[in-house]
Design goal:
The complex is a heterodimer of chains A (about 220) and B (about 325). Chain A is α/β, with parallel strands linked by helices and about 220 residues long. Chain A is about 40% helix and about 20% strand. The longest helix of chain A is centred in the C-terminal third of the chain and has 18 residues. Chain B has two domains: about 130 residues, no CATH class; about 120 residues, Cyclin A, domain 1 (Orthogonal Bundle). The chains are: A alpha/beta (about 220), B mainly alpha (about 325).
């Protein structure tokens, strides 16, 4: 899975998954990074990181995907995780009305704690469970439209639309990146061994945003 | 405490209580609030140690008062299932007729685990009941994810005791132990204490300063890579490392942790030792590989080695 260190990388993006407990954030990431599904999965305490390098439009993109804990208790930690994120995916469970009604809360928090150019995406998971669906695609779409963000639907279990969601999100991140005149990483940086070297550059800007929003 | 209102013989004044009573003291009102708590606990207990068969198996000693179908109390499992049925799609047709979608939401789909018979009870259900009662007894803490990971190993140890007389009282015994354990580590679970010295933030700070003293190079390296203790040590400390090692190793480790006279100072020593044992990798890894390393501690490391290293580093 891990790309070799001397591989050419055009972009390094940080993607954070948020949403209620049990909506399938960890399962989505496990499916996407390791192509694996487990019916029952440990609950995430704190945060988990997964990495995958993909090619989008001839560009090599390294995705750093942060899997966060859903419970209210862990929200104080979220500031650390949102920091420097190029995209935040708000996940809900299409069979749970409750997880859908909390989307707005997650959205507001994400907006507050992230940069202005951070790409936000709404994702309805567990689309395979048609029998117990509680939130229709139309309702989710209209909510996403009102928030002016993209909506996707996926099933981590059947591996349906997971890859497509991440690819589309990556494309949006690339657009946002170029739009804000951030020259992408110079070659000498990407060829070096340490991926983290891109971190300080980006996180410094987000740090300012973060502080401003508090004041 | 876990009985549905109205199912027990009541005195005159409580008889007037009903499910739609808006009074906050109403037993029904409390009942519905509790259900939210219960749903969360239920979700987490069903996925307790998924790699172990133990928690999915029926206990030999179910709580008879609940599983006995005659007195009608019913297991918590039933209560959870009823909660799932609450959501119906109500649509209003153009003529103004309210139509309720009668297709029951299949609970079977969302439950990957087979449900046991009426008179049976799985081990995870016993854990669920204990956590629910703990949450009710401790309204200031309630239930926080991760508590299940602390109670799990305790209950496993008690319930798998070869002496059946002891195993029979596993629920009571592990509840007692869990309550005593929580009395010592509960501050880690309390959000408002996060930034205080006694909360999880303080403990992570102690860990990092201890690492700075014992291995400045590694400490500096993590710092330079912006790897914060929140990214790995948060889980290590709150769960007493129960998610980092296999269950038998966790039990071995906990023996040492619980016998520590300056609890839980030894936990910090162990965490520090864990980082130092992989220091060679930490120093050459990049950010992502280090995060991976610390979040998925190499299973090849023997717990004895970790404990030995921790004891050795202990200040006299």
């Amino acid at each position: 899975m891990e790309s070799s260190s001397n591989e050419h990388i055009d972009y390094v993006f940080k993607v954070v998954l948020i949403g209620d407990c049990g909506v399938g954030k960890s399962s989505l990431l496990l499916r996407y990074s390791d192509d694996f599904f487990q019916e029952s999965y440990l609950c995430t305490i704190g945060v988990d990181l997964r990495i995958r390098t993909i090619s989008v439009d001839d560009k090599r993109v390294k995705l750093q995907m942060w899997d966060t804990a859903g419970q209210e208790r862990f929200k104080t930690l979220c500031g650390h995780y949102y920091r420097g994120a190029e995209a935040i995916i708000i996940v809900f469970d299409v069979t749970s009305e409750n997880s859908f009604s909390n989307v707005l809360r997650w959205y507001e928090e994400a907006r507050q704690l992230s940069r202005q150019d951070t790409v936000l995406v709404l994702l309805g998971n567990k689309s395979d469970m048609a029998d117990s669906r509680a939130v229709s695609t139309e309702r989710a779409q209209s909510l996403a439209a009102s928030l002016n963000i993209a909506y996707f639907e996926s099933s981590a279990k059947l591996c349906d639309n997971v890859k497509e969601t991440f690819t589309a999100t990556t494309r949006k991140m690339m657009e946002a990146y170029q739009k804000h005149h951030r020259a992408h990483l110079p070659d000498d940086l990407t060829n070096s061994k340490s991926l983290h070297m891109s971190q300080p550059i980006k996180s410094s800007t987000s740090l300012n945003c973060f502080d401003c929003s508090i004041m | 405490m876990i009985i549905k209102p109205g199912s027990e013989v009541k005195s005159e004044e409580t008889v007037s209580d009903h499910p739609l009573n808006p009074n906050p003291d109403s037993e029904w009102c409390v009942y519905f609030k509790d259900n939210e708590k219960l749903l969360q606990i239920d979700k987490d207990c069903r996925r307790l140690y998924p790699e172990l068969e133990f928690f999915q198996k029926a206990t030999r000693f179910p709580c008879e008062r609940l599983t006995n179908t005659e007195n009608g109390i019913g297991a918590l499992r039933k209560r959870v299932e009823n909660c799932y049925l609450e959501s119906h799609t109500v649509s209003r047709s153009r003529l103004g007729v309210t139509k309720m979608d009668t297709t029951r939401h299949k609970t079977g789909d969302s439950r990957p685990f087979h449900t046991l018979g009426e008179s049976e009870e799985a081990h995870w259900e016993v854990v669920e009941r204990m956590l629910f009662i703990y949450a009710k007894l401790n309204p200031g803490i309630q239930y926080v994810q991760g508590m299940n990971e602390l109670l799990g190993p305790l209950y496993f140890t008690m319930a798998s005791d070869p002496n059946l007389e002891w195993a029979q009282h596993a629920e009571a015994d592990s509840f007692y132990c869990f309550t005593s354990l929580m009395a010592e580590v509960r501050d880690n679970f309390i959000k408002s204490l996060d930034d205080s010295i006694c909360g999880i933030g303080g403990n992570m700070h102690i860990l990092m300063s201890s690492l700075r003293d014992s291995d400045p190079a590694v400490h500096q390296h993590l710092l330079s890579q912006h790897i914060k203790p929140e990214f790995f040590a948060f889980r290590w400390i709150t769960l007493l490392l129960s998610q980092e090692f296999e269950l038998p190793d966790v039990l071995r480790l906990w023996d040492s942790l619980f016998s520590d006279s300056q609890r839980f100072g030894f936990l910090v020593d162990v965490c520090c030792a864990m980082i130092r044992l992989v220091r060679r990798n930490v120093l050459k890894n990049d950010f992502a590989s280090n995060m991976k390393l610390l979040q998925n501690y190499p299973p090849s490391t023997s717990i004895e080695e970790v404990i030995r290293a921790a004891i050795k580093s202990r200040k006299p």
